[in-house]
Structure formats: structure tokens, C-alpha cells
């Protein structure tokens, strides 16, 4: 028994020695890792530069000298677009951060020739409150007690250009359709033409467009059906040349579009209309016949109308009796104008970046996309395998540690 006890103690002490060795190795690794972290952090701190400094207001205003002149550009643009002069302005209200920059306020005072600027509203809440009220004014679900007098204008001016066979020079050139900052729910433009044509819409001033816009042309439409309509009604008696009418609309977001187009055809025709006369006669006195032309669609035989005829006071009531008879004298021809509105087909044409890919380009794009999809699938598969391997390593290590602990306890 004594020898068996010694053997067991020797085994436990041997296992404990292995455990202590592994513990020392782990502690050494942790110490090296912490030392490496400390060294890296000290290297980073040695490379940092403290940029804290102080600056006076005079120096700040001197460094921002070019910005003060640029801050006056929006005011000058507003005056030029509105056509107002400085002496016609009643008040200048400051909102936002402008109320906290003294140099900016001094520049505005010098430019406007005023001693003080107006500050009657909350500078921070004014924009938010105005935007909320304007949104409620535009919304159909929110009812305000009264309508606010705010109107959105177009941010850009728009021009139109027509291209087609037989167009006049003044119609084929670019013309202003909508001036800038003008309200235009809808607008109609007519031109005398009998052939199909194309409509192109442009921004009025390309210099005002944001960076990245390569062309001031933004929409193009093909209007068809006008040639067929002119051929159909060419044999009729046209009272005026055929006109094409274009209907444009400007949304609340400032987006211009061609909603519809139609051809206006005016025809003059001789139409036979029944001619009816109303004869008024006196039973006793010889009076001339009074003829009244009956209006179209009215009934001439609805009843008799009493007419006061001057006569002798001693005549009887029968002598003042009036008879009204409708006499049909045949038909007569009248020249009438009839107007026909023929809807035209409007098709939006893609150009520039909106042009569709050709068949060859589309096939190449599909091949590239398929190759990218395969690479993505391989990457996901590799990541999944790595995660599975890592999970297996952690699970195996945990099982080994559990077996060692159980063996040590035994």
C-alpha cells in the first residue's frame, strides 16, 4: 500500500509539473504581448503633434478677408433677380449663424447703407418653423386655419428647342420657355406645323448648374402623329393652318416635363339649317308682318307672346288680339367652324448617360457581373471554411483542457 501511494503521488506531481510549465509559458506570452502594446502606444504618442493654439478676433477676421466679400454675393444676386434697388428695400432680416458674426454684420451694414440690421425673429427656429409651415401648406392631409402666401419658384430657367422638317427659323432656335424663379403650374405652347418633330429641353444658364453636369440639355421628346393628322384633314376646307399644341407642367419639386401634345385642326363647312319665321298679324288693322328669326334649338311653337299694339281707345278687345304663327320657309346654308383636337404620341428619348447599352456591351457587362459573382461566392466559401476551422480548433482545445483538468483531479 505504501508503494502504491508513492507511485500515485509521483504521477500527480509529474502532471502538476507539466501544468506549471504550460502556465509559465502562457504567462510569458501575456507579458510579451502587454510589453508590445506599451511600446506601440508610446511610439504613437511620440509621433502626435499638439495643434492647440489661440487666435484673436482681429487675426481671424484678417485670415477670412476673402470670405467677407463672398458673403455679399447672394445679396447682390437677390437684388439683380428681383430688380430692386437698395433704397427700395424696407428691411433686412438676419437668421442663422449670421447673427453671431460681427464682421459679417458690419459688411452688410456697409453694403446696404444701414446703421442696424433687423433681428425680429428667432434666428435658430425661424428656418425650421418656416419649413414646417410650408410643408403643411403643401400637404393635403394637414389643414391650416389660413393659407400661407408662400409660392415656390423654379430654381432654374428652362429653354425649348424644336427640331423637324419644315420648321421656321424662329421656331427651330432655342427659345426661353420658363424664366428663373417663376411660378408655372402648367404652360401651353403652340406652333403652326404639319410634320412630326422633336422637342429638346435645356437649362437656361449652364453656368448655374452644379459641378458634374456636362450638358445643359436634360430632356428630349419625339412627337409623332402630326403628319398623319395633316394628311387626314388636308382634303377638308381648313379655315387655318394645322397647329401643334404642347402642354408643359412644372411640379412642386421644380421638375419640368412635357405632359401631352395634340394637333388642333379648324375646318369651315357649309351646314344646312332649317329656316323658320314667326309672322305677327292683326285681325282688324292692316299692319306689316314682323318676322323674328328663331334661334337654333328653341321651340317656335311653345306658345303665343302678347304684344301691345297702339290703337283707338274705342276699339274692342278683339281688335287688339295678336296672332302668332310659325311658318316654315325651307332651309338655308350657314358657314360653321369645327375644331378637332387629335392627340399626338409623345415618346421620351434617352441620350447621354441615359442611353441603353448595345447588345455587345450588355453581354460584356453580364460576363463581368457573373465573374464578380463567382469571386464573391469563392470569398464567402473561403471565409466559411476558415470560420469552421477556427471553431474546430477552439472546440478541440477546450476538450483537451477539460480532459487534462479531469486527469489532474483524479
TrEMBL record:
Q: Where is the composition biased (Polar residues)?
A: 311-328
What InterPro entries does this protein's entry cite?
Answer: ATPase_NBD (IPR043129), Heat_shock_70_CS (IPR018181), HSP70_C_sf (IPR029048), HSP70_peptide-bd_sf (IPR029047), Hsp_70_fam (IPR013126)
The record's annotation in PROSITE patterns points to:
HSP70_3
Segments for region (Disordered): 294-330
Enumerate the Gene3D superfamilies for this protein.
1.20.1270.10, 3.30.420.40, Actin, Chain A, domain 4, Substrate Binding Domain Of DNAk, Chain A, domain 1
Annotated Low complexity bias: 294-305
A Gene Ontology CC term for this entry?
Answer: endoplasmic reticulum chaperone complex
Q: Name one GO biological process term.
A: endoplasmic reticulum unfolded protein response
**Protein location:** Endoplasmic reticulum lumen
Chain segments annotated as transmembrane: 21-39
Which domain of life does the UniProt lineage start with?
Eukaryota
Any one GO MF annotation of this record: ATP binding
Which UniProt keywords are present, listed alphabetically? ATP-binding, Chaperone, Endoplasmic reticulum, Membrane, Nucleotide-binding, Signal, Transmembrane, Transmembrane helix
Q: SUPFAM superfamilies from the xrefs?
A: Actin-like ATPase domain (SSF53067)
> What's a Pfam family in this record?
HSP70
Q: What is this protein called?
A: Uncharacterized protein
Q: Which organism is it from?
A: Aquilegia coerulea (Rocky mountain columbine)
Q: What is the lineage of its organism?
A: Eukaryota, Viridiplantae, Streptophyta, Embryophyta, Tracheophyta
